[in-house]
Amino acid sequence: MPAVPNPSDSQISDKSQKDALTAFAQLMGLDPDLLGDAYATLQQAKKTAETHPDIRSNNKVSRVATKKNYLDKELVYEDESAFIYRRGDTKKKTWYLRIFDEKSRKPFVKSLGHTDYARALTKARTIYQEVKGKIDRGERLHTIASAELVKKYLDSLHVTDIPHAGVTPGTFSLKRYYLRVWLEYIDYLGYSNTPIDRLSDERLRGFASWFRDKPREDGRVGARSVEQINNAVSEVRLAYYKVAVRNKYLSEGRVPDLDRLKQPKDTGDRRDVLSLEHYEQFWKFLEYKYSREKNIKPLEKQRRILFTKVVGILVNTGLRPKELLGLRWHEISNNVVGDESVRKKCCIIHVRAENSKTGRSRNVVAPVKRRLEVIKKSYKDLGIEISPDDFVVMNSQKSDRSPYTRQMLYQRLQKAIELSGIKEELDKVHQHISLYSFRHQYISWRLRFGGVPIHLIAKNCGTSIQKIESTYGHIETEKQIDVITMNQGLSRSAEVDLTTIVSDSD
């Protein structure tokens, strides 16, 4: 058997190499051309390695660089996935850091901003600790700032009028407001451009106190409610969980731990319900002055009449503002059981399931028939013919016959409260009246003065008995004061009269 030639012998000539490779290929049954190409590739790789050594005298790298971009490679620590280097395709001598993430199979590359080796290595080791920590926690290496987090969260919400199918427009507006305030706070701290993974948790936790002390944009006086502020805190944390944690910008343990304000132990009666005196003053203003002011244009007159009747309907039905705004004329009927006097003033309002907060339909019986007739006449005075499918609270300026928005009615309510003369008194006791206040007004007055069984109120209002008891339970106690205090004080010798009779609310 002839001797097998050594194709790797660098001492032989090109012709000798070719002859040797040919003989070797024939002996092994290989294609001589393919074997020649492979040999040429190996020789070029060896030459490149000798020209661009990848090993510094003070550190060892096990792998040989074959890419000219990775010049002067040096490990940051004893970790072959992380090294600093200079780029071979530029004249700049700036050092770069490269860390390979085995989990994502993607590299992290960052300019160190230094040409000095010692300073670059020091900075690289600091960044390495941060990046490796993120990799170990399963976080993304490239994160986002607060504004992008908020945008991603709001964009992810499905806004719809259908209950339980997403977020209602009103709720979305409130969420957006809370997060806008949060971004104002971030800007106040000077963190607008800071990635969320670098925000100081200790400074962020003061958001609630800052929001409490923040001046009101609407010029109103009085502190914001604890509930509102804590709701804002919850919304911020929810945005972090839905975007930052879910998309691995942050691990769950790094969500900001924001302080909440403590709720007062005893909040007493609901402050957002007008007293009898304030309601009487407000109603007289609406009925006898607001809609009868001289020199107002017909359109504004119609709006004032409509608003006046809306308040009257809300306070006499217990409807949620959204339920009234979504009400159409064909959902109102006169099929009321009772004598003629009852039928003249009462009607039945059908609340559709998709228009209800609970997702359940219900019928509401209420003495608002006359008010509805006045509303219909106000449209007729403007030359608007009402069809059964039209909204009851229709915006007469809109060609699409869409209803008024809650915001439009809210703004009109605040202006009317100011014009009525009760705003200053309400501000003194930190009372804030909204459209929803009139629902609370209805429930509290039916309990306090109407003597209506609680289960009927719950059914009419589309809520639970438990909810009414938890919110308005104090009214039942006040109603039974004569019973609770019966026979008390008969004996002057005793601090407590043992003959006291206590009866439950039923």
Describe this structure in words.
- This protein has helices at residues 14-28, 32-51, 117-137, 146-156, 169-189, 201-204, 207-213, 226-245, 276-288, 298-317, 321-325, 340-345, 369-381, 406-420, 423-428, 437-450, 454-461, 465-479, 481-484, and strands at 71-75, 82-86, 95-101, 106-111, 332-333, 347-351, 362-366.
- It is 47% helix and 7% strand.
- The protein has 506 residues and is an alpha+beta fold.
- It is built from 19 helices and 7 strands.
- It has 5 domains: 14-51; 71-137; 146-247, no CATH class; 276-463, hpI Integrase, Chain A (Orthogonal Bundle), CATH 1.10.443; 472-506, no CATH class.
- It is elongated.
Distance N to C terminus: 115 Å
CATH architecture of the largest domain: Orthogonal Bundle
Radius of gyration (CA) equals: 38 Å
Q: What is the CATH class of the largest domain?
A: Mainly Alpha
Beta percentage is 5-15%
Mean pLDDT: 78
User: Count the strands?
Assistant: 7
Shape: elongated
Low-confidence stretches: 1-12, 48-66, 266-271, 479-506
Helix content: 40-55%
CATH topology heading of the largest domain: hpI Integrase, Chain A
Number of domains: 5
Note the total helix count: 19
What structural category do the secondary elements indicate? alpha+beta
Along the chain, the helix and strand elements come as HHEEEEHHHHHHHHHEHEEHHHHHHH
Question: How is this structure best summarized?
Answer:
The protein contains 19 helices and 7 strands. It has 506 residues and is an alpha+beta fold. β3 and β4 (106-111) form a beta hairpin.
